[in-house]
Amino acid sequence: MEVDRDRFLEEGYIILRGAVPPDRLDEVRTSYETLVEKQKANWARERSEEDPPGGVWETSRQPRLALHRKPLVEQHDASSAPAIEIWLHENVAGASSQLLGVEDAALTEMMLMCNPPHQDFGPAHWHRDMSPPYCAPLQGYTDDVLETGPRYVQWNLSLYDDDVLWVIPGSHTRINTREENEQLIVDRHVPLPGGVQTHLKAGDGVAYILPILHWGSNYSTRMRRCIHGGFSTFTAYEHRDYLDVISIKARDTFERWIDRSDAMRDLTESVLRAAIKKDAAGYHHGLDALHPGRGEKGKLLSTVFLSKAAKRIYHLQSTDFETLPEKGQSDAISQHPMTLQWGKPLAEKFTPEEARVLWDRFRWMDDAVQSDEEQTDPGFQGKTSTYYFSRMPSDLSTDRFTATWS
C-alpha cells in the first residue's frame, strides 16, 4: 500500500482505506470476537465484590483487550492467529515502515477497543497520549518530530464502521493554542475548532503521530471493535506466548523484532553505564546508536527518557522500594520500550550502588524538567504534577547535561 508520507508528516494523521482487506475482514472479526469472549470471562473472574457480574466489561466506557499481556497472552490458540497476523499485513506493517521512514518497523502493542455493552457513556475528553511525569514535556516530542520525524505511529483499525475518533491536524508539532486551552478549560467534551472527525468504514485504518491532540467523541452501545496499537523500531516482548499460535513466517518476523529489542535494551544499558563512568563521548555515541539519525532535539528527548529510566532503576534496586506507593512500584516495574523503560530486566543488570550512582548522574536532568510547584495543563492525561507539561526549558541540551558530570 502506497502512502502519502508528506501529508502524514504535515497533518499528523492519515486515513488508509481497506487496510484490512475485504477478503480478510470476516476471519479477523471472528478471531477477535473469540478473544473478546475469553477476556470477558477473565474480567468476570477478576471483578471486585462491588462490581456487576461482568466486571470491567460492564463498567468501562471502552473495554480494552491487550493481546500481548497477561492473562490474555496465555490463552491464545490457533483461533488467535488472524487477530495477531493482520498486524503483519503489508497494508499495516508495510505502511508503518513507509510512514516512519524505516526499513522494518516493529509492532509495539496489540489491543482491541470495544463498545460498552449497556450504558451510553457519551464523549470522553480531548487529550494527548502522554503524561509528562512519565515521559517528557510536550515540546520535547514536537521538536523531535519537526527535526527528524516521528519515532512511533499509532493505529486504529476498524472492524465495523467507526466515527469515534477526532483529531486536530497539525497539533502533533505544536503546543495547544490559546483558543484550544480556553475551550478545554470550559468543556473538554465537545468539538474543538479545526477538529476533523475520522469516518472509518469497516476495514479502514487511521494512522497518527503522537502526541496529536485527539478525542474519543462518543462511547455508545453501538457495536465497536477497533484494533489499536502501533509501530516503532522496538516491539513489546515481555510475554511471548503468542508466538506458538502463528505461522512460521509470522513467528520469524516477531522473533526478528524481539532480537532487535533485546539488542536495544543492552544498548540502553551501555548508554547508562557511560553516564556512570562520566564518559560523555560514549554517552553521545550510545544515543546515536539507540536512535540513528536523530538530531540534538532527539538526543535531548532520549536523555529525558533515560532520566526516567535511571530513577526507576534506582527505585527497583533500592532497599526503600517496598515503601513506595503501589503506583510507584508498578511504574518502576512496567516496560515501555519506546521511552527506553525496560523494567526489571534492565534494572537487575545494575547493583544497588551502581543504581544509586546512576540516579545521581541523571537527577540534574530530572530536576531541570520540573517546577517547584504543582501545575497542570489542559489536554493532557494524568493529574497535577511538578513536571512541566508543555514547554521544555530553553537552555537544556545534552552537552549541558553531560557537563554536570565534571
What's the number of helices? Answer: 14
The largest β sheet comes out as: 6 strands, antiparallel
In N-to-C order, the SSE pattern is HEHHEHHEHEEHEEEEHHHHHHEEH
CATH class of the largest domain: Mainly Beta
Overall description:
- The protein has two domains: about 5-255, Jelly Rolls (Sandwich), CATH 2.60.120; about 260-405, Zinc Finger, Delta Prime, domain 3.
- Helix content is about 40%, strand content about 15%.
- The chain contains 14 helices and eleven strands.
- It has helices at about 5-10, 20-45, 55-60, 80-85, 90-100, 140-150, 180-185, 250-275, 280-290, 295-315, 325-335, 345, 350-370, 400-405; strands at about 15, 65, 105-115, 155-160, 165, 195, 205-210, 215, 225-230, 370-375, 385.
- The protein has a six-stranded antiparallel β-sheet with strand order 1-7-4-9-3-2.
- The chain starts with a helix and ends with a helix.
Topology overview:
Blueprint: H1 5-11, E1 13-16, H2 22-46, H3 56-59, E2 64-66, H4 81-85, H5 90-100, E3 106-114, H6 138-148, E4 153-158, E5 165-167, H7 178-186, E6 196-197, E7 205-208, E8 214-216, E9 225-232, H8 248-276, H9 280-290, H10 296-317, H11 326-333, H12 344-347, H13 352-368, E10 370-375, E11 385-387, H14 398-403
Helix pairs in contact: 6-10, 8-9, 8-13, 10-11, 10-13
List keywords for this structure.
single chain, alpha+beta, Jelly Rolls, Zinc Finger, Delta Prime, domain 3, 2 domains, 14 helices
